[in-house]
TrEMBL record:
GO terms for molecular function: gap junction channel activity. It is found in: Cell junction, Gap junction; Cell membrane. It holds the Pfam family Connexin. This is Gap junction protein. The keyword Ribosomal protein does not apply. A connexon is composed of a hexamer of connexins. Residues 42-75 form the Connexin N-terminal domain. Residues 141-208 form the Connexin cysteine-rich domain. Belongs to the connexin family. One of its GO terms (cellular component) is connexin complex. It comes from the Eukaryota.
Length: 216
């Protein structure tokens, strides 16, 4: 995937975000996206190749690896990053729709006609709801993926040795994971940054609701 194009699309969110939203976007790019692209992909590139079991039984290693690692961390993180940033693109699309509608009205009625959206990027009306729901959705996606990681990998950590007794393994065999300490460090780092992003999204949502209540 071309992450540079992805980053270019999301950079426009800064124009319509609050201070909390800008901090959230910076965290996603610097501490999640860049870490994923630069380091995490390489750390997990050998997860299946270097998964060794103390048996020569054909198929045993593949079955054990599939049982203990049903979904790769890398693929889960990629899906998480895509889903958590899609709501920000919806905000940009909503603003673009407002701007296009305003241009059509000016062409039809001239520059003297009444403007529906004096500032299309101002969070009022439908755009306010779009922005608020995007924050709730982003926090919800991160929470769901934290739960998925916890269910697949208890306590978000990988053991050094796993014992497997699935067929076609002849008996209980020991299987060894490649670089478990390094992978645990990256996993805990991504979990921590995800928790910070959840807190920022909820704080920003509270800020928007509180600001609207004060105005009303």
């Amino acid at each position: 995937m071309n992450w540079s194009v992805f980053e270019g699309l999301l950079s426009g969110v800064n124009k319509y975000s609050t201070a909390f939203g800008r901090i959230w976007l910076s965290l996603v790019f610097i501490f999640r996206l860049l870490v994923y692209v630069v380091a995490a992909e390489r750390v997990w590139s050998d997860d299946h190749k270097d998964f060794d079991c103390n048996t020569r039984q054909p198929g045993c290693t593949n079955v054990c690896f599939d049982h203990f690692f049903p979904v790769s961390h890398i693929r889960l993180w990629a899906l998480q990053l895509i889903l958590v940033t899609c709501p920000s693109l919806l905000v940009i699309m909503h603003v673009a729709y407002r701007e296009a509608k305003e241009q059509r009205l000016r062409k039809a009625g001239g520059d003297g006609c009444r403007r529906i959206y004096p500032n299309p990027g101002k969070k009022r009306g439908g755009l306010w709801w779009t922005y608020l729901l995007s924050l709730v959705f982003k926090a919800g996606v991160d929470m769901v993926f934290l739960y998925i990681f916890y269910r697949f990998y208890r306590n978000y950590t990988l053991p050094r040795v796993v014992k497997c007794e699935l067929r076609p393994c002849p008996n209980v065999v020991d299987c060894f994971i490649s670089r478990p300490t390094e992978k645990n460090i990256f996993t805990l780092f991504m979990v921590a940054t995800t928790c910070v992003c959840i807190v920022l999204s909820l704080v920003e949502a509270t800020y928007l609701v509180g600001k609207r209540c004060r105005e009303c």
